[in-house]
Amino acid sequence: MERINWMEFREVVPSKIQTVLLPTGAIEPHCVANNGADITSPLAISRQITKRLNAMIAPVLPYGTTGSAVYPAPNTWLEKIISTISHFSRISRM
After folding, report:
1. Contact 40, 33 (CB under 8 A)
2. What is the 3-state secondary structure (H, E, C) of 37-88?
3. For the ranges 3-7, 60-64, 66-70, 78-82, the one whose mean pLDDT is highest
């Protein structure tokens, strides 16, 4: 979805594609693993089922918190993301 423009999106959604998958996962420290390790599985699953569902994959929505005092915690990310989605949802209905 992030590789097409809005006009291309409009041509296929909803006339040809009625489902858009939104993979989500935490962005948090994992010692030696990458910070987005929790996104790997949801994105892989989305890629596997997209053809079967005739779906499009939206850009990954990263979120997450960590209880560790050792790493900086993105504790307010999820709240900001939900607020932003709600804001754009209201605008799109106007």
Report:
1. no
2. HHHHHHHHHHHHHHHHHCEEECCCEEECCCCCCCCCCCCCHHHHHHHHHHHH
3. 3-7
Range of the domain at 34: 6-92
For the record, the structure tokens of 72 come out as 């900086």
Burial of 16 from C-beta contacts in 10 A (0-12 / 13-18 / 19+): exposed
How many domains, in total, are found in the chain?
1
Residue-wise pLDDT for 10-21, tens only, equals: 999 889 999 999
Structure confidence by residue, pLDDT tens digits, 46-58: 999 999 999 999 9
In a domain, 48, yes or no: yes
Q: Is residue 82, in this structure, part of any structural domain at all?
A: yes
Residue 1 covered by a domain: no
* Cross-strand partners of 25: 62
